[in-house]
Amino acid sequence: MRTSRKNSSGYPAGIAGRGLAVAALMALTAFAGFAADAKAPIYLGVSGPLTGDYAQYGAQWKKGFDLALLEINGSGGLSGRPLAYVFEDSQSDPKQSVAIAQKFVSDPKIVAELGDFASTASMAASPIYQRAGLTQLGFTNSHPNFTKGGDYMWSNSTTQKDDAPSLAEYAVKTLGLKKLAVFYLNTDWGKSTFDLFSSYVKTFGGSVVDGEAYLPTDKDFRAAITNVSGKAPDAIVLISYDTDGALIARQLRDQGAKAPIVADAAIFSPEFLKVAGDAAEGVYTSSEFFADDPRPEVQSFVKAYRAKYNEDPDLFAAISYDAVFIIADAIKEGAPTRKGIHEGLSKIKDIPSVIYGKLTFAEDRRVAHPQLTHLVVKNGAWTAWTGK
């Protein structure tokens, strides 16, 4: 059994007052007792949306987390200790993610943090985690600057620099759609993805004839659809999340728009199919994960997921499942401590991954050489695009 390495701790200089000194001593004593318990759970902190506009993503996260923990703890845990998590609801709001970060870094039992959902929420909290030496695994954070926040920031997500050119190539070069009108979320993620996408569209010989920004709270897109229709695009591109993307798709079809729809990978979920209904038919996207991928690691995961939840997993369930195993592998390479996980992440190489097959981090603490699969909705289900 690997023994835990305790974090070095000392009293802060200039403690004023007996009460603070006693409180500090009690905290240190409690931590020492916790660390000494060889059977105590190893806790991860999760900052993400359980309520609000992005609650469906937090729900998918929990399914991926719980399945991973069922497998890890069912096999004896990590050196005999169960792995567990504490999920704090941030609604993916930067103000709340900062407050959660302060809570996690002050809690000695939290040895690593997962999240937040949106890059803006994660990046707002990153300085707190960096100063405290607590690893932040932003497993859905696609902003290229996320891991530039410090050496405690890691991500197994693709970045906008991966997704935007793939989306542009799929639309223009693969599908042959030259004139594109784009709906994009008026957020940091949406605007930066739109800018990158537009530049790559030109590279592949296409053009963006209209760009319609919208807020995450918008529900009525009829005026924007009228503007788009007037440009007679070859295709309509959605840089959207699943629910808002589905609403746009429905309203496009309700208003008679016939142009093909090509969407960013963020719409890839069962929720998009549910909300869009018939309007989802023929929608193109790409994803790092596809449930019908024949790779054995994918099919093993899908089988276990279906058995537990009676549904197919989406990207967000799969990537959260992977995230737990990444931390578990880091603990095996290092130790179940903040320092041990930080050291362990730099050592892991070619570890099993549902998303990537084998996962290795590059120098920027991002996944080396990620691959995307082209998909299309056919007969109401996501299918691999085969050129037909």
C-alpha-based Rg, rounded: 22 Å
At the first level of CATH, the class of the largest domain is Alpha Beta
Q: Residue ranges: pLDDT <50 for 5 or more in a row?
A: 1-36
Strand percentage: 15-25%
Globally, the shape reads globular
Mean pLDDT: 90
What is the name of the CATH architecture of the largest domain? 3-Layer(aba) Sandwich
Task: Note the run of SSEs as H and E.
Answer: HEHEHEHEEHEHEHEHEHEHHHEEEE
| Biggest β-sheet strands, sense, barrel | 5 strands, parallel
Name the helicity range: 40-55%
How many distinct helices?
A: 12
**Strand order of the main beta sheet, please?**
2-1-3-4-5
Q: How far do the termini sit from each other?
A: 54 Å
Written overview of the protein:
This protein is an alpha/beta fold. The protein folds into two domains: 40-158 and 297-359, Rossmann fold, CATH 3.40.50; 160-287, Response regulator (Rossmann fold, 3-Layer(aba) Sandwich). 43% of the residues lie in helices and 17% in strands. It has helices at residues 18-36, 55-74, 94-105, 119-132, 160-174, 188-203, 222-229, 242-254, 270-276, 296-309, 315-333, 338-345, and strands at 42-48, 83-89, 110-115, 136-137, 153-154, 179-185, 207-214, 235-239, 261-263, 284-287, 351-353, 357-359, 373-378, 381-384. Strands 2-1-3-4-5 form a five-stranded parallel sheet, sandwiched between helices. Helix 6 links the parallel strand 6 (179-185) and strand 7 (207-214). Helix 8 (242-254) packs parallel to helix 9. The longest helix is centred in the first third of the chain and has 20 residues, at 55-74. The termini are far apart.
